[in-house]
Design a protein that fits this description.
The complex is a heterodimer of chains A (251) and B (206). Chain A is an alpha/beta fold and 251 residues long. Chain A has one domain: Aldolase class I (TIM Barrel). Chain A has helices spanning 32-42, 59-70, 86-94, 104-108, 111-120, 153-163, 184-193, 207-213, 226-229, 235-244, and strands at residues 5-13, 16-17, 47-51, 77-80, 99-102, 125-134, 137-142, 147-152, 167-172, 198-201, 219-224. In chain A, α1 packs parallel to α2. Chain A starts with a strand and ends in a 7-residue tail after the last helix. Classes of the chains: A alpha/beta (251), B alpha/beta (206).
């Protein structure tokens, strides 16, 4: 049976993991390669890397790191951050990414989704969305969640699917950082709208939050960063727990 | 030396990295001579069947590939590369495959719906395999219940003779097939963690 996926997310700035903290047996916790290996050994089903390097000059650092990870870790790797063109797709795919996630780049140029899907296949294009509830509807926010684009999130998701996105990452700004659980109403609405896999992001604080998440049929994966980085939740124990709850997990 | 065929379909980085990680000598290959000189051949691929079949034909390697397989050289098709080993593919039309394994490649969706499942297509993610041919040399280090990584919207049918391992996605999906020295994996061994590396290692050591 196809399993639900647990995905740690690593933010990389200037070649280092941001928010990395004490890991047993990992000497350099800010080293993306060591972190990736650690998560692979812990049973992570996939890894997501976001390049949050601000300066253009330091961009090649990220490519180098991605290549090092891809030479040693053999699970699916998704890469995002500053993906604005097919050249950007090309750059990270050549360094070993399996999937590429677009966010602001697709808002600025929606054609990017279709162009990338045509060239690299649907399975390669992940539409990442920062979503916040505004009044009675959900809006897409840009610039790291600071700017309301006014775009209706469910419509945007449907447009992304139609254009050829193979997966959606739904990051709820409302639940992000609160650690009170995933944004279940949003995820429910999304799963009623699209039929491509949905990766939930934002709000995980404890393992029970994942159990609640996966009770929603249409959600395929849960993504989190700090609770894994801070060792508040151990991926191996989490997956064992979820399997005991009757959720299909790779162990 | 393992020849990894490059016919312009998909990204070879992960595959060549995994082979290097396992200590195998691999060469990205675009010529007949490279296929003739290699000890083993891997046919990778991502994308649509028809497009890939045409590209493989245009590469001029199709006949050599068939000759080498007929001469007993181990050949391993991965994902779309596995699908191309079959006789026919029915993705956006009807296309001829290599015909090295009996059966055809069909869309998942209608069969899933007919079986009463609303599962998503592509099947994307980790699924566990059931070994149905324990004698398959490529599976000698593998066990039923191990998880491998799939991404596909089409699957092989009418290939009972060649079945080595299956997975359950509402319908029975051939995960690994073989016929003599010709092997095919619907999943990505180069993306399936230690379980996948083990299968690649078995191929390397064959």
């Amino acid at each position: 049976m196809l399993t639900k996926r647990i995905i740690p997310c690593l933010d990389i700035r200037d070649g280092r993991v941001v928010k990395g903290i004490n890991f047993l047996g990992v000497k350099d916790v800010a080293c993306p390669v060591e972190m990736a290996r650690f998560y692979n050994d812990s049973g992570a089903d996939e890894l997501v890397f976001y390049d949050i390097t601000a300066s253009f000059e330091n961009r090649p650092l990220f490519s180098g790191i991605l290549e090092q990870v891809a030479r040693q870790v053999f699970i699916p790797l998704t890469v995002g951050g500053s993906i604005n063109s097919l050249d950007d797709f090309d750059r990270v795919l050549k360094c070993g990414a399996d999937k590429v996630s677009v966010n602001t780049g697709a808002i600025k140029n929606p054609q990017l989704i279709a162009d990338a899907a045509k060239r690299y296949g649907d399975q390669c294009v992940v539409l990442s969305m920062d979503i916040k509830k505004v009044g009675n509807s959900y809006h897409i926010f840009a610039k790291g969640g600071r700017e309301d684009t006014g775009i209706e999130a469910l419509e945007w998701a449907a447009r992304g699917e139609a254009a050829g996105a193979g997966e959606i990452v739904a990051n709820s700004i409302d639940t992000d950082g609160v650690r009170g659980g995933f944004d279940l109403p949003l995820l429910q609405a999304l799963s009623a709208t699209v039929s491509i896999p949905i990766i939930a992001s934002g709000g995980a604080g404890k393992r029970q939050d994942f159990a609640e998440l996966f009770k929603l049929d249409g959600v395929d994966a849960g993504l989190a960063a700090s609770i894994f980085h801070l060792k508040e939740v151990d991926i191996k124990e989490l997956k064992q727990y979820l399997r005991e709850q009757g959720i299909s997990m790779r162990l | 030396m393992i020849a990894v065929i490059d016919y312009g379909v998909g990204n070879l980085f992960s595959l060549t990295s995994s082979l290097a990680y396992l200590g195998a000598e691999a060469e990205i290959s675009t010529t007949r001579e490279q296929l003739q000189q290699a000890d083993k051949i891997i046919l990778p691929g991502v994308g649509a069947f028809g497009d890939a079949a045409i590209k493989l034909r245009q590469s001029g390697l199709e006949d050599t590939l068939k000759e080498q397989a007929a001469a007993g050289k181990p050949l391993f098709g991965i994902c779309l590369g596995m699908q191309l080993l079959f006789e026919k593919g029915y993705e956006y039309g009807e296309y001829d495959g290599l015909g090295l394994i009996k059966g055809g490649i069909y869309p998942l969706t209608p069969d899933l719906r007919a079986a009463g499942f609303d599962y998503k297509v592509p099947q994307m993610g980790w699924n566990d395999i059931t070994i149905v041919a324990p004698d398959c040399p490529l599976l000698k280090s593998s066990k039923s219940g191990e998880y491998v990584y799939f991404v596909h919207s089409y699957y092989a049918k009418n290939c009972d003779e060649a079945l080595a391992a299956t997975c359950n996605y509402g319908v029975e999906v051939p995960a690994l097939v073989y016929s003599g020295n010709v092997f095919g994996a619907q999943f990505h061994p180069e993306k399936s963690g230690d379980v996948g590396l083990k299968i690649l290692k078995t191929f390397i050591d064959m």
